[in-house]
């Protein structure tokens, strides 16, 4: 398994932010597969060693990762600082994914608006009734407060 696929989505993103905010204050290539570094956390500087061949052997002395075989944001930050092209590819992938999600969302909104506009008055009444009485309770309560109880 590669370094990035073993990291959680949250660690990847936070690690990317750390890398971008220059929190990797020291970096040294120890061997073909090992990189040592220092990463500034919240008020503390952590010592990080990443192993690109065996990612689970990577170490960081932060409370989250110390003594455990997990990939933390400090390791990710050091990884991205060592491989900036991988960092940029990761960032572009995140942006492309978000843009795709936004595109899908606005496409769905447009379809719903078209659908609502196509309905006749009695169909609209029936649909509103169904949405309010079959939908979640908060929706009913909000509708009641905003339109009836005022
Ligand atoms: Zn850490």
Reconstruct the topology from this structure.
Layout: H1 9-20, E1 24-29, E2 34-40, E3 45-51, E4 59-60, H2 73-82, H3 84-118, H4 121-134, H5 137-147
Antiparallel strand pairs: 1-2, 2-3, 3-4
The radius of gyration computed from the alpha-carbon positions, rounded to a whole number of angstroms, is 25 Å
Low-pLDDT runs of 5+ residues are none
Work out the strand percent.
5-15%
DSSP helix count? 5
Q: What does it look like?
A:
The chain is of the alpha+beta class and 150 residues long. The protein is built from 5 helices and 4 strands. It folds into 2 domains: 75 residues, no CATH class; 32 residues, no CATH class. Helices cover 55% and strands 15% of the residues. It has a 4-stranded antiparallel β-sheet with strand order 1-2-3-4. The termini are far apart. The site of zinc ion (ZN) has 7 residues, from loops.
Brief account:
By secondary structure, this protein is α+β, with helices and mostly antiparallel strands.
Any descriptors?
single chain, 5 helices, 150 residues, alpha+beta, 55% helix, binds zinc ion
């Amino acid at each position: 398994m590669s370094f990035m696929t073993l990291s959680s989505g949250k660690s990847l993103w936070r690690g990317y932010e750390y890398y971008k905010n220059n929190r990797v204050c020291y970096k040294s290539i120890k061997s073909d597969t090992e990189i040592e570094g220092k990463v500034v956390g919240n008020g503390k500087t952590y010592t990080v060693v990443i192993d690109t061949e065996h990612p689970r052997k990577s170490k960081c002395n932060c409370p989250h990762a110390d003594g455990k075989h997990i990939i933390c944001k400090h390791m990710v930050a050091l990884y991205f600082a060592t491989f900036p092209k991988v960092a940029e590819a990761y960032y572009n992938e995140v942006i492309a994914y978000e843009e795709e999600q936004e595109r899908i969302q606005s496409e769905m909104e447009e379809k719903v608006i078209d659908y609502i506009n196509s309905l006749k008055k009695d169909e609209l009444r029936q649909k509103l009734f169904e949405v309010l009485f079959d939908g979640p309770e908060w929706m009913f309560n909000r509708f009641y407060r905003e339109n009836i109880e005022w």
